[in-house]
Design a protein that fits this description.
mainly alpha, elongated
Length: 78
């Protein structure tokens, strides 16, 4: 099902979901952690790094899927 309409719809849905979750986290966490002072600032920086790592892993997964579909069909690691 590489590069099919279903694959494209599923990929776009995941992309929208990830972007939405990251946006909500980045809006709410500073407000919630603001009352902790410097510890809240430190916690927010750690959370931003964790979110960045998760987004980068998702992008690597997407690029691998695109490469696998372009080269030889689906190469799922089970």
């Amino acid at each position: 099902m590489c590069f099919s309409a279903y694959w494209l719809a599923e990929t776009l849905a995941w992309l929208v979901a990830v972007c939405g979750l990251v946006a909500i986290l980045m809006l709410l966490l500073p407000v919630v952690l603001g009352w902790l002072g410097w510890a809240g600032t430190l916690a927010m920086q750690v959370i931003r790094i964790i979110v960045a790592v998760i987004v980068i892993i998702a992008l690597i997964w997407l690029v691998f899927d695109l490469y696998a579909c372009a080269v030889s069909g689906p190469l799922r690691m089970h």
